[in-house]
Amino acid sequence: MKASTGTGGIYLIAVEDFVVAQDLSDTVREAVPAAVIVTAPDCAAALAAVADQPQLALAFVEAGPDRVAELRLDEAIRARGGRLVLLGGEAEDAWDSGAVTGRLWPVLIRPFSSQAVRRLLRAVPQG
Fold it and tell me: What digits encode the pLDDT tens for the residues 32-43?
């Protein structure tokens, strides 16, 4: 897990694919230049990264709702004031089946645009 410095809030990006993680990081940094960005390759590493943070603004996590609930990752993020956004195949399958709704956890559906990410970022109080 890596963190950059800043005072615009802490954003977690837990995505296995480096290119997707970098694209999300770049979009967050464009929208919130002073953001601290913490990356993790999977849910287990994301849970450890969350435990190291005093607070979070938003967490993009590549996982479905079952995995998030199993690890109680949503509770850890919420306890630090953060919001959770799911993405990836399992999240999209759950969204399609109605197992997760945007009110519980928003799902970033592929192909997603920078504009879709910025909409999620605008819903978070800054710094």
Answer: 999 999 999 999
Q: What is the pLDDT of residue 7?
A: 65
Neighbours of 70 (CB within 10 A): 11
Cβ contacts of residue 71 below 8 Å, gap of 6+?
43, 44, 47
φ/ψ (deg, to 5) at 52: -85, -5
Range of the domain at 74: 10-122
Q: Two tokens at 83?
A: 């919001």
Query: Rounded to whole angstroms, what are the CA distances from 75 to 4, 64, 80, 84?
Result: 24, 15, 9, 10
Strand partners, 83: 58
What are the distances in angstroms from CA 85 to CA 5, 10, 98, 103?
A: 22, 14, 16, 11
Mean pLDDT estimate for the chain: 89
The pTM of this model reads 0.89
CATH code, domain with 118: 3.40.50.2300
